[in-house]
Write a structure and sequence with these properties.
2 copies of one chain form a homodimer. With 546 residues, chain A is an alpha/beta fold. Chain A is 28% helix and 24% strand. Chain A contains 15 helices and 26 strands.
Chain lengths: 546, 546
Amino acid sequence: MHGLMMNMPLSISALIRHADRYHGDTEIVSRLVEGGIHRYTYHDAHRRARQLANALASLGVEAPDRIGTLAWNGFRHFEIYYATSGSGAVCHTVNPRLFPEQIVYIINHAQDRYVFFDLTFLKLIEAIAPQCKAVRGWVAMTDRAHMPQGSTLDLLCYEDLINSHSDDYVWPELDENAASSLCYTSGTTGNPKGVLYSHRSTILHAYAACMPDAMQLSARDVVMPVVPMFHANAWSLPYACAMVGCKVVFPGAALDGASVYELFETEKVTMSAGVPTVWLGLLQHTQQNKLGFSTFRRTVIGGSACPPAMIRTFNEVYGIEVLHAWGMTEMSPLGTMCTFKTRHLNLSQEEKYAVMAKQGRPIYGVDMKIVDDAGRELPWDGKAFGDLLVRGPWITAEYLRGEGGSPLREDEHGLKWFPTGDVATIDADGFMQITDRSKDVIKSGGEWISSIDLENTAVAHPEVKEAAVIGVSHPKWDERPLLIVVRKPGAALTREQLLEFFQGKVAKWWMPDDVVFVDELPHTATGKILKTRLREDYKGYRLPGT
Amino acid sequence: MHGLMMNMPLSISALIRHADRYHGDTEIVSRLVEGGIHRYTYHDAHRRARQLANALASLGVEAPDRIGTLAWNGFRHFEIYYATSGSGAVCHTVNPRLFPEQIVYIINHAQDRYVFFDLTFLKLIEAIAPQCKAVRGWVAMTDRAHMPQGSTLDLLCYEDLINSHSDDYVWPELDENAASSLCYTSGTTGNPKGVLYSHRSTILHAYAACMPDAMQLSARDVVMPVVPMFHANAWSLPYACAMVGCKVVFPGAALDGASVYELFETEKVTMSAGVPTVWLGLLQHTQQNKLGFSTFRRTVIGGSACPPAMIRTFNEVYGIEVLHAWGMTEMSPLGTMCTFKTRHLNLSQEEKYAVMAKQGRPIYGVDMKIVDDAGRELPWDGKAFGDLLVRGPWITAEYLRGEGGSPLREDEHGLKWFPTGDVATIDADGFMQITDRSKDVIKSGGEWISSIDLENTAVAHPEVKEAAVIGVSHPKWDERPLLIVVRKPGAALTREQLLEFFQGKVAKWWMPDDVVFVDELPHTATGKILKTRLREDYKGYRLPGT
């Protein structure tokens, strides 16, 4: 016996149609790659998305062809999001910060039919085009006047495409489980893997993202998505903003503190979202120039753990609420947000900061648990840490073309969970805090040791510049921690002095078995310590006493 | 090509599981029909809902059996909501305010297997039981100590059922389109019609209900659902509160001002929802006793249009924000809420009140339009009024057992719409305001005349006690308005004086063609003027000049 409600599939085109119909005169403001500011409305965006849908059809694009983008946050990227998914094609956002070989791999693996790019990426496009055989055309996201001269490629012009097509287009009714968009993980090991979202997952995720215990978006907000649209759906903002009909301010390529600050003030931004690095730049700018914010009230910070000092500065100096968030590409990407419960409201400010340092509790639709090596659920005491598993209707079940096999793990109740690769604690209020990456944790005698905790302890020593902890094999304990340290210039710190420093700061059995001093540590392109290399280099390392 | 996200059906059991897991120690407080206050937590509610699910199974209840309730807002009713829907049965809330014959009709039409009732309704149950052949048992929602003595029925005891079953129960995974709950419209004409909700419609509706532009619910709220759980899902609150994990305060049967006020204060309620009548009683109590509210910040008012004076009193005297809402049983029930856009924030307070008097804009998922007799969409100018049509995934497509045929109307684009039976305007911001009921509007020469506007004009005359306007047939204009008036005691108002009073207050062609003075008007059980009777009585009425 089914319910007797209307059968209406969840769809991305309904978002832009709603924004046009109920918020048609609300503005979308973009800083252009070509210079200057562009402003128009949801009504205009919807009209142009329909023109673009007609243009795509005239180029022979059919459902479910993949359409690549290499672009900043701006109104044209926004139109592409809706024109592609709305017409049944798949919007494949490509991260321009990847290595060119990875970009070639991704475009070919996805079999992108057309690729839309901002002028910033012309050289990149020209370099990779010969290796992207499935791509039928490259579209420069600009007008005729700004089209590059003398390109090695026969480029299409975005505004010409729009202008040569009518807006007489009716969005097709699609299966809500149809693929809508695609984003590859940046994968530190192996090839990038494609995460394929559906209309259903995107809409459910947007609902959850807007809620008061998540991003709390309303029509009264002015939102600046600083988090890039080229990765993980800009944390749902291109969808969530249309859902609530708020004004949107796209910062384009200018993510330096001065440019972002200017837009915050001129456009009266109330809410934003981005990674800690961007906010560092913004705060440096405001501190150096003794500036305040007139309308900015809250910001979502995620992508990596938000430094407690940043939460404090935003709060105490600027009166801005930080919403600490956690998620992953495989989660659309939002998983948890750190918003208070009633009982937190009466805590002291210091106790509140301790809560805000956590990544928070799941937005509705996500479930999570922490488990030990045997898959047994661990207690929610804020101390026990284990592999963080998640499930929900906007979480990946498998990767495009079955890459890497099924990532899911089945539990004793027959429920399937996605292993996040993170290690975390969960406290009695259900607030989660990331403590390590699963592959970096040291598994010693069936118990786990957090590499991050040991590294934090080491770098607290005044003579330590940088430190990494990895597990190396041990005949009795399986793995034991090895501490690899770069001393500060001129420092003469010894192994014994450093281990002495650990006394009383960590549990006895967490004490590193040995210390190696090196001149430098290997890093990834984005500045993280490359632990895979360290594990390789110290594979056969003999710990003392073994 | 489908997306590759987890296949997780939306389900009502996931709500209570989530509330237990992430808000297990949050309180649910109930004023008992038996006297006193009951308090426990989401964790307890989940445990007892599982015990009840086992009890239902032991009684032979299977999916999709219907389980009736005749009950106030309280923790046991809350448990029944989850135990029934969660186990695949259908929670059929019966409105005890209907006539006994209607209740018998509804219980038989739904084929309820068991009926759970609060002690308040014992006499009613005893009276109707012999006519409800499909009901296998009647469950008194109380403990052994309060079981009625000497009942004509062989009653089951709710607490005995719970206590005799274990909480070892795993919620089954159900098709998200499976029927979850059932509520009959109170239908002024014909038999009540059954609206059958699904798990999918209930969850999507709850997401939309929680959003900042709807009820704005968070874990930091303390919510008192005054709106009854026996009708239209208490505006989603039994679901939405579990979704966000807020504290809930159930007022039971005591809806008088003093009882409700007491709970507001002792339980620190921040948010509530109900029909205007309840708030009248509460405001009378606070005004007579010169009381204020310590924590109450906002309230949803719907069910019928909220009097502007009430919005003003809540705002100016108590600092409480009124969220004017509109919906219907067939809409789960929420359709629109009146929450501001950015441009409204700078209006004067008087201009804001004018906006707040409207029923507002759709919550995300609902689309609406107003159409004329030919189904042509009317402009959004705040003046043109027409039949209000709606569509969305939590809106009725048909009634149980096909009662009344398909209610939907297909438009020129092939889209199907549900006709609400209301007549409304929509302004340029997309804010809707109800102006009449479709069957009460007078259709004169292809144009529409609002009966409510004419009635409001008539009762503004100092000698008019009550007035009704109906359309009577006219050879040239199809229909023309007839004004039927009850004079105040001792008044000698004439037809000519009253029509003179209308001059300049309504458009010339809206002027009633005739006035009839009567001693009294017929009313429904709930106090509304019974226009169907008036139309019957004045069917052959000859208007002057015809």
